[in-house]
Amino acid sequence: MSLSIKDLLEDKAYGLDLQLLGGEAGLANRLYSSRIQKPGLALTGYTEHLHPDRVQVLGNTEISYLSQIPEEVGSRHIEKLCSYPIACFIVTKGLDPPEFLKKSAQDAGIPLLGTHHQSSTFISLITKFLEESLLPSTHIHGVLVDVLGVGVLLLGKSGIGKSECALDLVIRGHRLVADDVIHIKKKMPAALVGQAGESIQYHMEIRGLGIINVKDLYGVSSIREKKIIDMVLELMEWDASQEYERLGIDEPMKTILGVDLPHLKIPVRPGRNLTSIIEVAARNFLLKGMGYHSAREFHEKLLARLEFRPLGNEVE
Length: 316
Hints:
Elements: E1 3-4, H1 5-10, E2 18-22, E3 30-31, E4 36-37, E5 55-58, H2 60-68, H3 71-82, E6 88-91, H4 99-108, E7 112-115, H5 119-133, E8 137-147, E9 150-155, H6 162-171, E10 175-187, E11 191-196, E12 203-206, E13 210-213, H7 214-218, E14 226-228, E15 231-237, E16 253-256, E17 259-268, H8 274-289, H9 294-307
Parallel strand pairs: 4-5, 5-6, 6-7, 9-15, 15-17
Antiparallel strand pairs: 1-3, 2-7, 8-9, 8-10, 10-11, 11-14, 12-13, 16-17
Helix pairs in contact: 3-4
């Protein structure tokens, strides 16, 4: 994942409030890291620990230093600094950078931006912006619902009944997050957050009925904008020749963006109440989180009973 310096300029949601001061030729420069750097000693010519791929933030200390040293010395140091492939410079607090900094940045094609924010405030804002924008992401076809606080991702081939299950869960008081296309981002260190695309948010497609707006029909308590995904339930057509999990001792996983999630395969056939099964799966997930694993406890009790079974009771 990456974004351009132009994306920083165009931000509206995070309030970066950036203006271009020079170096427009470098607006296509790409950022790949959410970390920023204050150049510090690099302004004196010591560039040993310079990270040119990061946003370089110049605050009151840096601009004051450049304004007080002889212009010839400052120009030499800044020219050396600009000989590196710097992503961009950002001057905070609405300060006016020295002319030799503007000229060097312009000649090197390095974007020079300015903001009215204090350095500490701006660093907090841009770090959050970069972290959100550079997170690994993907799209998955399915339905995401919040069941008892558990983020349940419903998968299955088209027409198997994912949306109908989600609608029934909403009617029971649970909450819809996304239907059809789910945008998933990885939150560090190992959490996946799913949400709907802006154009289809709060909407569901019910075959034979069409597009419905869940928020309008059932109120704001029936929807969520985003939710951490805790488990995956895959709806599958019943196949008598296939063996399905009967005990629940084994815990298969599904990997999405490098994160392992509990993965249950639920066979679909007439007469099965899928909504109740999904609710029970969510409750069981919560129970496991508290340290209680029903299937394993049952298995252990059964083995203990077989191990201490009295001898001599066999039927001859």
